[in-house]
Write a structure and sequence with these properties.
10-stranded mixed beta sheet; hydrolase; 6-stranded mixed beta sheet; Alkaline_phosphatase_core_sf; single chain; alpha+beta
């Protein structure tokens, strides 16, 4: 058979029940048609977080194993297929280091940031590696992504080679902003609230066969009140938030329809392998909203997510984005490939699968090979497996459990057993054959299973992900589940009246204290501790380091130097990252490589915070908002003292001396 084209579509923060073909009332006819003529997965997993899912999607590896956002231990699908003669292109959100054109994509349009204003964009937009200015009028990110994707497809049509197109929609990630016509379409549909929507979606999922007829959906958690108990102002704002979300998801479907229509017109639809997936479940983080009294139909209105609607959107599951429970890691997955799929069109497959499986599947069906080495990288083995046997109507065997880790949330899926920990809490155990919605923690009834799976989680963390192990210190009482009684500080506080510029948990938007401005965060694979003015660092795996997420807001414009003394017995290269815009998050911004000495002796360093490719660049004259310092890229330890930022005259403007408590990621 002729090698297939590949269209890979990823959406951002989509809940398990947010598509019509997964139980939603949102109108998604184009995606529903792909499902009706293709294959749906009911147990398809992600990493529960934006950037880590993108790493797994592109590399077939768990995020940390791949080198995290640097991809320093991986090869991408674009690089692999490009080496086999495929035309490769991408449109949309990147959210990793460097740019897509540095990792095998021949064409790219989109934003490098993790999120942006849908109407106004941000300063990270690129076209083929060059800065791209967002138009002042007539711009909407979801539409612009497909405008450029269509351009790339037209270019691909002119060549004889097959193509690989990756479209990474930012929607429906916050800020909640919708086109006026899409928002108007859903006004009035959510007046009945999340209890009714949750009930209707759960019932529809059973009708569709997405869930079993005897499945009991998750109950509304204690941190979310009954809809009827809300105040009128709260109901009004919450109704508008879900209206915006529905409109944004509807727009994703409309734009996907444009891509499908093109494939039908060119005759490519039958031999194009189409994937539609999400990076994580619905987002519960209720951060700052502006203009809540208005409609979110232009760039001046910006709303954050709602924990209440996140629960309804993740129907029938518990918890949310970042949590390694089903609500965070299980999302829709649709495959459409008429020439390559043997199961009955419209079939639903209940085999557990994961984003790490997409890359090896693409390699398999395109007749390619996964590279074992790549210039400038120490490539690690792929953890995913090919799903081609499912495409051919069979089944497959996975040799290892599915491993889940993001920050302090952890999990392991082994056959019907699911082990999970909520924010460093004790291990919880669920039998997903009888309890897919994780309502009954049976850890106390199966201590041997918990011990065995916990040991396996740690073994994989060390040997596969190359990160640290986990030993929960808290005890769990019989039948208790930490994930049901705890909450997150950024979930909505519904006792608060919705207000402009106030976080949804009732806290002020920011605290500009000297302590917070001098706080140091230990990054992943790093443990930190201050002792008498010296910062002791212990590195447990790849990509360790520290970050300063909040610098004083009234710093004069640069240039600056980051000065410090380092004693290290680790290994590898160092890096400094800094951002010059408030809407940028680390590691976006400017990257500066540097070479530390690892001889266990004290050495002084001073790193100029300018773009090293252009000493006169504007970055040297702009404010600096965030800093990150990596002193190695491997396991080991180090000490830092006299860490400070100096202005152009050598005057000290910030000193980090341990007076504020470092927080581990």
């Amino acid at each position: 058979m002729q090698r297939p084209n590949v269209l890979l579509i990823m959406v951002d923060d989509l809940g398990f029940s947010d598509l019509g073909c997964y139980g939603s009332e949102i109108e998604t006819p184009h995606l529903d048609a792909l499902a009706a003529n293709g294959l749906r997965f009911s147990q398809f997993y992600n990493t529960a977080k934006c950037h880590s899912s993108r790493v797994s999607l592109l590399t077939g590896q768990y995020c940390i194993a791949a080198g995290d956002t640097s991809l320093s231990h991986a090869v991408t699908s674009a690089e692999t297929l490009g080496a086999q003669g495929y035309y490769t292109a991408m449109a949309g959100k990147w959210h990793l280091q460097k740019e897509p054109t540095d990792f095998g994509f021949q064409r790219y349009f989109g934003h490098l940031s993790g999120a942006c204003n849908y109407f106004l964009g941000d300063n990270t937009f690129r076209l083929d590696g060059q800065p791209w200015s967002v138009p002042s009028e007539g711009f909407y990110t979801t539409v612009a992504n497909v405008d450029h994707a269509m351009e790339f497809l037209h270019q691909a049509d002119e060549a004889d080679n097959p193509w690989f197109l990756y479209v990474a929609f930012n929607a429906p990630h916050a800020p909640l902003q919708a086109l006026p016509q899409d928002y108007a379409k859903y006004e009035g549909r959510y007046d009945q609230g999340w209890d009714v929507i949750h009930q209707r979606r759960a019932a529809r999922q059973k009708e569709l066969g997405i869930t079993s007829a005897d499945l009991i959906p998750s109950e509304r958690p204690d941190h979310i009140p009954a809809w009827d108990s809300l105040s009128d102002p709260r109901k009004e704002f919450e109704t508008k938030r879900m209206t915006a979300l529905a409109a944004m998801i509807d727009r994703v479907d409309q734009e996907t329809g444009r891509l499908i229509e093109h494939l039908e017109e060119t005759g490519d639809i039958d031999n194009t392998l189409i994937w539609f997936v999400s990076d994580n479940g619905a987002c519960p983080y209720d951060r700052t909203s502006q203009k809540i009294e208005a409609k979110p139909t232009d760039g001046t209105v910006s709303w954050s997510d709602s924990t209440g609607w996140a629960w309804a959107r993740n129907t029938p599951f518990r918890l949310y984005k970042q949590n390694q429970f089903e609500g965070g890691i299980s999302t829709p997955a649709i495959v459409h490939w008429p020439k390559g799929l043997k199961p009955q069109p419209g079939s639903i497959n209940h085999t557990p699968a994961h984003l790490i499986d997409i890359f090896p599947t693409m390699v398999d069906v395109t007749g390619s090979m996964i590279p074992s080495e790549w210039p400038g990288r120490e490539v690690r083995p792929v953890s995913g497996v090919s799903l081609r046997p499912i495409f051919e109507g069979g089944s497959f065997q996975r040799d290892e459990p599915l491993h889940f880790l993001f920050s302090s949330d952890r999990g392991l899926r082994e056959d019907n057993w699911k082990l999970a920990s909520f924010r460093n809490g004790p291990w919880e155990l669920y039998d997903l054959n009888s309890d897919r919605t994780e309502r009954h923690n049976v850890a106390d009834n199966h201590p041997i299973v918990v011990k065995r799976m916990a040991e396996r989680w740690n073994q994989m963390a060390t040997d596969v992900l190359h990160t640290r192990s986990f030993s929960p210190t808290a005890d769990v009482s019989p039948g208790d589940a930490a994930s049901t009684r705890n909450r997150h500080p950024e979930w909505t506080d519904f006792s608060q009246r919705p207000q402009n510029n106030i976080r949804g948990n009732g806290r002020n938007k920011k605290k500009s204290t000297k302590s917070s401005q001098r706080a140091i965060r230990a990054r992943k694979n790093t443990t930190s501790k201050w002792k008498q003015g010296v910062l002791h660092l212990y590195f447990h795996g790849d990509d360790p380091g520290i970050a300063m997420d909040r610098l004083p807001s009234k710093l004069d414009q640069g240039p600056y130097h980051l000065a410090f003394e380092l004693q290290s017995n680790a290994a590898g290269q160092g890096e400094v990252f800094f951002t010059t815009s408030l809407d940028q998050s680390l590691p976006n911004g400017v990257r500066l490589p540097w070479t530390p000495k690892h001889d266990d002796q004290w050495h002084a360093y001073s790193i100029a915070l300018v773009n090293d490719s252009d000493e006169q660049s504007t970055s040297s004259k702009q404010e600096i908002h965030r800093l990150r310092l990596d002193t190695s890229d491997a396991k080991g330890s180090a000490k830092i003292r006299n860490l400070r930022m100096l202005d152009a005259s050598g005057k000290e403007v910030i000193r980090w001396d341990g007076n504020s408590t470092p927080a581990n990621q």
